[in-house]
């Protein structure tokens, strides 16, 4: 054995392969080095030997066996652990990558393969002019989904040619801190808030950006809908297990693309990973709003998320309206200032945030807590008999609902008091049938207690539903988000409430409508099997009926309405994983949402237990056995292993949502990247 100092004093040969385009020059070089030579010195020696005069500033050393970059140029070879058997690769840090956006368009741009994915996504979003990059991430499609796609491609007669938007000349993607695209941190409006077109002045500001006016419209506008044949060929998740496959491929935000086996010119999906869309503003977020709208649209069309037939028709009507406005030249016209002011006022009420925004007036939250009291009907499902439906006098106070035999007995003890904190609230509504129900799944020791409340009309339903939603998050009706929540529910119900007008069917613009482009395959098949006897019962006619309620909306408003309606669905924001809980003998599905975890029965799809992040004390991962352990208040602790994906993905999801909950409008848009990695990175 020789000491490290003796070893360091002896020189040895190091093989480095250089990634360059000069065919006449060799690619492999043997360097005579010593262990105390630093990485920067190795690179200098190498460039001197190559004898090609070019800019080497973007090059770095990649250690093939260890799958890691040697970026700390002041570290010595000994400190890095590099010895004579190491195979080093001298290559560019920025490489071409194809990204499939939520609107199914593919862009090709240069991305850092050496930065952590979190930073790479931030750079990509600057090029594409998408604010709040922390909400997005990169997804690698699973092999199963790709195999099914390839099988379908083989069966199709014509080869598919993909239209790729090339943004490879971007100064940001070349590793330079040049033009920020349209990404503006000033408060100067960047987009027209009605049509979403770039404000004419901003085009000249950023004339060196790859996002020309034409490219920007590709990202900010919804383009003609896909054909029914294309929709039929797309991968459609049928079961919870299928939905779990969709979430298995999220890249690790704390490691680089190269470290995760991504190669130059590979294709990845850029998607909104975290469903907390913070501070959506039509003046700056035309691209972001359009991409969220597109992600929501495809989730509904391929049934990643379930909705009722009535809701599907609303989504179809909004899509039809958006595509009609996007194709018409009127949508591109600029409007006068007074009209913009009116629309800004309307859109400020439509601002889409899951938590309902921050309290504008602190006093509002510390006054007496309001209460609701009214006659509702209680429905309790019974296993062996019909549902028992009885009217009671209900009182909603704080985060609890109590019910009494009648109004007079409300001064005494209630028949039962239901604490809604941490419960699941599911709408059970059919506006056409005048059914306004609220399904409550209340956590109890051995699972979930199921209770239905039936309301008499829309207004009563909106008030009680909003109170239940807030109570499930531990908030009362004194919270400033209560009234916006009521308004949101009422506006969604209003969209569902339509009556047929004869002129809608005879509208000349609607004759060419292809309803199959706006509806999921399941509902298209259902309508085809019905064979309607009356022209007003056709699928196109039903969509046009629903369209009457949204036909006056502007383009951006219609997209925001679509996003709001998507957020109102019971399954919104749930990402599924197949897990095995500690002590359990069977697999379950774990749903990860922005504020809770839900254990779901894999066979029936019914929720078993809910755990809120607000009650979480700590979480960690045992990396040896790949087990996630979480502790909650009141000595509740759970542990599970993830079967459908790496446990790091769930760990990052939980930490990511907690990180996003720390954002506030008062902050600058710069993020605490260290905090993100501290919460999501784990100590692997």
Automatic annotation (TrEMBL):
<dbReference type="Pfam" id="PF00373">
    <property type="entry name" value="FERM_M"/>
</dbReference>
<keyword id="KW-0130">Cell adhesion</keyword>
<dbReference type="InterPro" id="IPR019747">
    <property type="entry name" value="FERM_CS"/>
</dbReference>
<feature type="domain" description="PH">
    <location>
        <begin position="377"/>
        <end position="473"/>
    </location>
</feature>
<dbReference type="GO" id="GO:0005925">
    <property type="term" value="C:focal adhesion"/>
</dbReference>
<dbReference type="InterPro" id="IPR011993">
    <property type="entry name" value="PH-like_dom_sf"/>
</dbReference>
<dbReference type="GO" id="GO:0007160">
    <property type="term" value="P:cell-matrix adhesion"/>
</dbReference>
<dbReference type="InterPro" id="IPR001849">
    <property type="entry name" value="PH_domain"/>
</dbReference>
<dbReference type="InterPro" id="IPR037837">
    <property type="entry name" value="PH_Kindlin/fermitin"/>
</dbReference>
<keyword id="KW-0965">Cell junction</keyword>
<protein>
    <submittedName>
        <fullName>Fermitin family member 1</fullName>
    </submittedName>
</protein>
<keyword id="KW-0966">Cell projection</keyword>
<comment type="similarity">
    <text>Belongs to the kindlin family.</text>
</comment>
<dbReference type="InterPro" id="IPR037843">
    <property type="entry name" value="Kindlin/fermitin"/>
</dbReference>
<dbReference type="Pfam" id="PF18124">
    <property type="entry name" value="Kindlin_2_N"/>
</dbReference>
<dbReference type="InterPro" id="IPR035963">
    <property type="entry name" value="FERM_2"/>
</dbReference>
<dbReference type="GO" id="GO:0042995">
    <property type="term" value="C:cell projection"/>
</dbReference>
<dbReference type="GO" id="GO:0005178">
    <property type="term" value="F:integrin binding"/>
</dbReference>
<dbReference type="InterPro" id="IPR019748">
    <property type="entry name" value="FERM_central"/>
</dbReference>
<dbReference type="InterPro" id="IPR040790">
    <property type="entry name" value="Kindlin_2_N"/>
</dbReference>
<dbReference type="GO" id="GO:0007229">
    <property type="term" value="P:integrin-mediated signaling pathway"/>
</dbReference>
<dbReference type="InterPro" id="IPR019749">
    <property type="entry name" value="Band_41_domain"/>
</dbReference>
């Amino acid at each position: 054995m020789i000491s490290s100092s003796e070893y360091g004093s002896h020189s040895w040969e190091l093989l480095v392969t250089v990634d360059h385009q000069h065919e006449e020059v060799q690619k492999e070089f043997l360097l005579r080095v010593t262990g105390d030579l630093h990485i920067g010195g190795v690179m200098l020696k190498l460039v001197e030997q190559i004898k090609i005069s070019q800019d080497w500033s973007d090059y770095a050393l990649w250690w093939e066996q260890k799958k890691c970059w040697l970026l700390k140029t002041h570290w010595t070879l000994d400190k890095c652990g590099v010895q004579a058997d190491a195979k080093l690769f001298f290559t560019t840090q920025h490489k071409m990558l194809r990204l499939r956006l939520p609107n199914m368009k593919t862009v090709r741009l240069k991305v850092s393969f050496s930065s952590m994915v979190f930073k790479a996504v931030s750079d990509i979003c600057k090029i594409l002019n998408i604010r709040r990059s922390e909400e997005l991430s990169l997804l690698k499609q699973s092999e199963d989904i790709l195999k099914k796609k390839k099988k379908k491609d083989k069966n199709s007669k014509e080869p598919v040619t993909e239209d790729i938007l090339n943004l490879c000349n971007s100064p940001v993607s070349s590793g330079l801190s040049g033009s920020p695209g349209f990404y503006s941190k000033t408060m100067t409006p960047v987009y027209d808030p009605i049509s979403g077109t770039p404000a004419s002045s901003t085009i000249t500001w950023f004339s060196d950006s790859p996002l020309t006016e034409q490219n920007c419209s590709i990202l900010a506008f919804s383009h003609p809908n896909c054909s029914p044949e294309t929709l039929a060929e797309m991968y459609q998740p049928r079961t919870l297990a299928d939905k779990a496959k969709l979430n298995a491929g999220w890249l690790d935000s704390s490691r680089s693309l190269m470290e995760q086996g991504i190669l130059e010119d590979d294709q990845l999906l850029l998607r909104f990973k975290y469903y907390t869309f913070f501070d959506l503003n039509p003046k700056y977020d035309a691209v972001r709003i359009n991409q969220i709208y597109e992600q929501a649209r495809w989730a509904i069309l391929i049934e990643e998320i379930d909705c009722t037939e009535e809701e599907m028709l609303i989504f179809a009507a909004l899509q039809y309206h958006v595509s009609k406005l996007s194709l018409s030249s009127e949508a591109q016209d600029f409007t006068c200032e007074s009209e913009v002011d009116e629309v800004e006022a309307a859109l400020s009420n439509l601002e889409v945030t899951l938590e309902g925004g921050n309290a504008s007036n602190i006093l509002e939250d510390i006054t007496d807590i309001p209460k609701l009291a009214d006659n509702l009907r209680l429905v309790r499902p019974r296993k062996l008999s019909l549902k028992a439906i009885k009217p009671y006098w209900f009182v909603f106070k704080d985060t609890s609902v109590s019910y009494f035999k009648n109004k007079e007995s409300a001064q005494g003890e209630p028949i039962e008091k239901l604490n809604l904190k941490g419960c699941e609230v599911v709408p059970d509504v059919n506006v056409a049938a005048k059914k306004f129900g609220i399904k409550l799944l209340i956590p109890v020791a051995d699972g979930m207690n199921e209770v239905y409340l039936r309301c008499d009309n829309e207004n009563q339903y909106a008030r009680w539903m909003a109170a239940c939603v807030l109570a499930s998050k531990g908030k009362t009706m004194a919270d400033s988000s209560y009234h916006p929540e009521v308004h949101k529910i009422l506006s969604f119900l209003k969209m569902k409430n339509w009556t047929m007008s004869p002129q809608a069917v005879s509208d000349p613009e609607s004759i060419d409508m292809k309803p199959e482009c706006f509806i999921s395959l399941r509902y298209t098949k259902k309508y085809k099997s019905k064979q309607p006897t009356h022209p007003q019962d056709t699928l196109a006619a039903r969509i046009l009926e629903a369209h009457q309620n949204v036909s006056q909306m502007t383009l951006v408003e219609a997209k925001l309405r679509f996003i709001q309606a998507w957020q109102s669905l019971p399954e919104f924001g749930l990402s599924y994983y197949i897990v095995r809980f500690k002590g359990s003998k069977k697999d379950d599905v774990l749903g990860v949402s922005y504020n809770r975890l839900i254990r779901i029965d894999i066979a029936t799809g019914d929720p078993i237990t809910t755990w809120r992040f607000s009650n979480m004390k700590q979480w960690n991962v045992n990396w040896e056995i790949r087990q996630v352990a979480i502790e909650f208040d009141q000595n509740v602790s759970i542990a599970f292993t993830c079967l459908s994906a790496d446990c790091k993905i769930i760990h990052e999801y939980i930490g990511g949502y907690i990180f996003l909950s720390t954002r506030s409008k008062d902050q600058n848009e710069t993020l605490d990247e260290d905090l993100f990695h501290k919460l999501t990175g784990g100590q692997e």
